[in-house]
Amino acid sequence: MTEPVDPARPADHAGGAVHIVIVGAGFAGFETARRLLRHQRSDSDHPVEVTVISPDDFMLYTPLLPDVAGGLLDPRFVAVPLAQALPGAHLVAGRVEEVDLDGRTLEVRNREGAGETVEWDRLVLTPGSVTRLFDIPGLTEHARGLKTTTEALYLRDQLLEQLELACRETDPEIARARRTVVVVGASYAGAELTAQLRALADEVARQRDFDPQDVRFVLLDMADRVMPEVGEKLGDKVLEVLRSRGIDVRLGTTIDRLTAEHAELSDGTTVATRTVAWAAGVAASPLIDSLGLPAEKGRLKVRTDLSVPDHPHVFAAGDAAAVPDVTKDDAITPPTAQHAVRQGKVVARNVLAGIGVGSATEYRHNDLGLVVDLGPRFAVANPVGIHLSGYAAKAVTRAYHLFSLPRGANRMAVAAAYLGDAVYPRPLVSFGLVSDDEASLARSQGIPTSSES
Length: 453
Ligand SMILES: Cc1cc2nc3c(=O)[nH]c(=O)nc-3n(C[C@H](O)[C@H](O)[C@H](O)COP(=O)(O)OP(=O)(O)OC[C@H]3O[C@@H](n4cnc5c(N)ncnc54)[C@H](O)[C@@H]3O)c2cc1C
Fold this sequence. Notes:
alpha/beta, FAD/NAD(P)-binding domain, six-stranded mixed beta sheet, 33% helix, 23% strand, binds flavin-adenine dinucleotide
C-alpha cells in the first residue's frame, strides 16, 4: 500500500483555513513562513495553512557561501533544514514553472520531472535572483557562479584539484594555467570569494611546499572601484589589501571570450586558466519574467505594502521584487539579505491584515550597512555608517553572521569552525562530488541558457 503524500492543498482547507503559498525558501520566503506559522500556532480564530515551495529542503544562508568555497565551512553549516525550522508548514520540493493569477493555481515540477498543480488563496512570490549573465561567448559553458552550495563546493574542489594536478604537471605552461584563477565581479560577493580562495590556495602552498605567489588570482570588474557598496574609503582599503595578497585586480576590465583553457580579457590580454568564477551581479529569478506583469530592472513591481498592483492577493519580496525604497526618492531597495528578511516580515503582516488580523503597513527600512569578510585577519564593515576595517570589522562581521543565522545548531557549527580556523590549518579536502555539468549555471541555478532555448 502506498503512503499518503503531503497534500499540496491541505485537506482542512475546506474547513475555512486560508491557504497561503510561498514560492521560494530564501531569506524573504523563510521569514514570511516563520511569521505566518507563529500566527497559525497562536490564533485559531483566523486559521491559515502555509505551503512553502522550494527546489531545496533548506534555507541557504548565502552570505557564507564564500567561506564554503574557501574550505572554511561545511555546506551543511549554512543550510537551515526547512522541516525542522518551519514546523507546521507543508513543504513541496520543486520549482514553480507557471503561475495562473486568475485561476489561483501554480505548476510545480520536481527533480524527477513530475508536475503538480497547487492551489492558493494568497500567493507570496520570493524566488530570489540568479547570477546575471552577459552575452559573452563561452560564459555559460565555462564559468561557474556562486549562488548555490553546488557551485561553492565545485569551486573549492576545482581549485584543490587543479593545484594538485599542477604539482604533477610537466608542461610549465599548463601548470601555470592550472594555478590561475579568474574571478569576475569585485563587489562584495566576488571580493569575498577571491579572498577565501586565496586563503585556501595559500594553505595548499604551505602544505605542499611551493611559493603561494605561484598561484595567480585575477579579479576583474567593469567598474572603476572595488566594492562600491562600502564607499570610497573602505573600497580603497579593500583594494590595497587584495593587491597586498598578490591578487591582480583589474578595474574597467571584463571577459570578452571564454574557452575551456583561457579567458580573453577586454584589456587585450589573454589569461590561461582552468577556473573562472562569475560573480558579476544578479538578475531576478526567471519565474518573474514568465508572469507577464510590470517589472523594473527585471524585478516584479510591487506597492509599498509589497502587494502586486491589480492583484491584491499576491505579494512579492526580496531580490525578485522591485520594492520602492520609501527612505529615498525614486529608488528601489537593493538586492540584499538585510532587506529580504525585513520584507518577509512585512509580507506576513500584510497577508494577515488581508484576512482580518492586525493592520497593514508599508515597507520602510534604513539600510544598516554591510559586513564583508575578506579572509584571514581582515574584513570591512560599515554598520550604521561607522567605517571599520581589520580585526574590529572581522569581529563585527563574524558576530553579525552568527547572530543572523536562523538556527542554533547552524550557529554552533559555524562558531566551532571559526574557532577551529584560529587554531588549526584550513582542512584541504576535495570530495569531487559535484560534476562540471551539475555546477553549470543552467543546472545549479535553473537559468535558461541559449543552448537550451
Ligand atoms: C555569495 C553571496 C554573498 C552575499 N552576501 C550578502 C551579505 O553579506 N549581506 C546581504 O545582505 N546580502 C548578501 N547577499 C545577497 C543575499 O544573499 C540576497 O539578497 C538574498 O538571498 C535575497 O533573498 P531572497 O529571499 O530574495 O532570495 P534567495 O535567498 O535567493 O531565495 C530564493 C529562494 O527561491 C527558490 N526558488 C528560486 N526559483 C524558484 C522557483 N521557480 N520555484 C520555487 N522556488 C524557487 C530558491 O531555491 C531559494 O530557496 C549575498 C549573496 C551572495 C550570492
